[in-house]
């Protein structure tokens, strides 16, 4: 059975979808079969990022409604072998219920090494649906007070649902910007603000932003792609030390 990881945050705009895409690609490059599930009903973007928007006909709501078979609604990424997408519903009212999501992901996990669920921002129905099948959670935050405060609220919501296997990903990290701010004196202060153990720091990387906009592969040797590779290795049980933040 494949590992099911939900990627969530306390607020929008922190780069969850980029993280899901980059991590999925890094896992696929390790020879794994990876399915991304877009949980952001009505505001999906993974179909663009994986370059399947033009081919997309069906989404997860069509499968639930009986209008399509699962194999009809899962699309291979055009630029990364081994990575696939099950798209979000085009209408917000078609959010999959938590019970159905759990059953669906349980069935799909027999065919993939990793399932990554891209959770919508906030703590509403989309959040509850996305985390219903989670075995572990990556909580994504940028190192700013508002995002970290919302991240702490998300951590508490996860724990109320019994999800304690969560790890923090600090995304879009800029060493220069961090040293110039006056709120947090160290990375430990950032971690303490959320109350979740750190698993990765992903640097601010213009090459990732460009690849996302153009719906193409992330440059393998860019700082961001290398960070995704280290995160993928940690999720697979390897002991990979954190890179010195001075490089970022």
Q: How do the strands and helices of this protein lay out in sequence?
A:
Blueprint: E1 3-9, H1 16-29, E2 34-38, H2 46-49, H3 60-65, H4 70-73, E3 74-76, E4 83-86, H5 98-108, E5 114-118, H6 125-131, E6 136-141, H7 145-160, E7 166-173, H8 175-180, H9 187-194, E8 198-203, H10 206-214, H11 223-235
Parallel strand pairs: 1-5, 1-6, 2-4, 2-5, 6-7, 7-8
Antiparallel strand pairs: 3-4
Helix pairs in contact: 1-11, 5-6
InterPro entries: CobQ/CobB/MinD/ParA_Nub-bd_dom (IPR002586), P-loop_NTPase (IPR027417), ParA/MinD_ATPase (IPR050625)
GO molecular function, one term: ATP hydrolysis activity
Organism: Candidatus Caccousia stercoris
- What is the chain-wise order of helices and strands? EHEHHHEEHEHEHEHHEHH
The N- to C-terminal Cα distance equals 36 Å
CATH class: Alpha Beta
The CATH architecture: 3-Layer(aba) Sandwich
CATH topology: the name is: Rossmann fold
Class computed from helices, strands and strand pairing: alpha/beta
Q: Supply the CATH superfamily name.
A: P-loop containing nucleotide triphosphate hydrolases
Helix content: 25-40%
Question: If you compute it from the alpha carbons, what radius of gyration comes out, rounded to the nearest whole angstrom?
Answer: 17 Å
- Please report the total strand number as a whole number: 8
Q: Compute the average pLDDT.
A: 91
Domain CobQ/CobB/MinD/ParA nucleotide binding: 6-214
GO molecular function: ATP binding; ATP hydrolysis activity
InterPro entries: CobQ/CobB/MinD/ParA_Nub-bd_dom, P-loop_NTPase, ParA/MinD_ATPase
Keywords: ATP-binding, Nucleotide-binding
């Amino acid at each position: 059975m494949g590992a099911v990881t939900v990627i969530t945050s306390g607020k929008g705009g922190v780069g969850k979808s980029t993280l899901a895409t980059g991590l999925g690609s890094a896992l696929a490059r390790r020879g794994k079969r990876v399915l991304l599930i877009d949980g952001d009903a009505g505001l999906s973007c993974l179909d663009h990022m994986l370059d399947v928007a033009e081919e997309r006909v069906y989404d997860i709501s069509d499968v639930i409604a009986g209008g399509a078979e699962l194999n009809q609604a899962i699309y291979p990424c055009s630029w990364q072998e081994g990575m696939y997408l099950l798209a979000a519903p085009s209408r917000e009212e078609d959010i999959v219920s938590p019970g159905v999501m759990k059953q669906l992901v349980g069935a799909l996990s027999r065919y993939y090494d990793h399932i990554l669920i891209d959770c919508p921002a906030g703590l509403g129905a989309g959040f509850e649906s996305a985390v219903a099948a989670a075995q572990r959670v990556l909580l994504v935050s940028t190192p700013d007070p508002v995002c970290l405060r919302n991240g702490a609220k998300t951590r508490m919501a996860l724990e109320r649902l019994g999800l304690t296997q969560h790890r923090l990903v600090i995304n879009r990290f800029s060493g220069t910007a961090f040293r110039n701010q006056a709120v947090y004196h160290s990375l430990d202060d950032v971690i303490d603000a959320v109350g979740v153990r750190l698993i990765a720091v992903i640097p601010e990387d213009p090459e990732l932003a460009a690849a996302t906009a153009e719906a193409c592969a992330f440059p393998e040797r860019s700082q961001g792609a290398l960070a995704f590779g280290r995160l993928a290795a940690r999720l697979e049980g390897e002991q990979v030390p954190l890179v010195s933040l001075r490089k970022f």
